[in-house]
Amino acid sequence: xxxxxxxxxxxxxxxxxxxxxxxxxxxxxxxxxxxxxxxxxxxxxxxxxxxxxxxxxxxxxxxxxxxxxxxxxxxxxxxxxxxxxxxxxxxxxxxxxxxxxxxxxxxxxxxxxxxxxxxxxxxxxxxxxxxxxxxxxxxxxxxxxxxxxxxxxxxxxxxxxxxxxxxxxxxxxxxxxxxxxxxxxxxxxxxxx
Length: 193
Prior knowledge:
The chain has helices at residues 7-30, 40-50, 54-61, 98-108, 122-144, 153-161, 174-191; strands at 65-69, 87-91. The protein is mostly helical. The chain has a two-stranded antiparallel ribbon with strand order 1-2.
C-alpha cells in the first residue's frame, strides 16, 4: 500500500493552513465590526434616522447651564398650578471628552449616501461602531423586559425613534434619557476603538 502523505508533506500542508488562518485573522481584525443583519441600504436608512438625533445629544454634551420650560405642581388649595411661569435649569457636571463632541459634529455633517459602502470611510466606521454599541444596549433592554432575542438594525432604529414607556414613566424626560444613552454609546465607540 502506498502512502499518500509523508511527514514532510503533512508539515507543508500544516504550514499552509496556519498561514491561511493567520492572514484571514489579520483581515478580520482590519474589517469594521459587523452590524447584525444589516445590508448597506439598511445601514444608510439607520444613519438617516439616527444621526439627526445627535442634534439633541450635542446639547447634552455641551457643558454649561440649559434652561427648558418646566412645570409646577398643582396647588393644594386651588388644584391647579399656582405659578404663571416655570422653568427647569440644569447643568452637566461631567464634561464630555472633546473627541466625542468632534465625532458628533463629524456625523452631523456626514454625507451618508456618498459614503464608502466598503466601510473604508472613517465616518462610516464610526457610525458602525456606534450602531454596534446601540445594538448591544437595545438587546440588553429587551432582556430586561423579559423578551428574548437580539435587537437588529430595524429594532435599534425603532427603539431610538419611539419615546415610549421603555424610556421612563415621565414623558417629559424620555428624550433626555434617550439622548444620554446615545451619548454614552458614542463615547464607547469613539474612546474605546
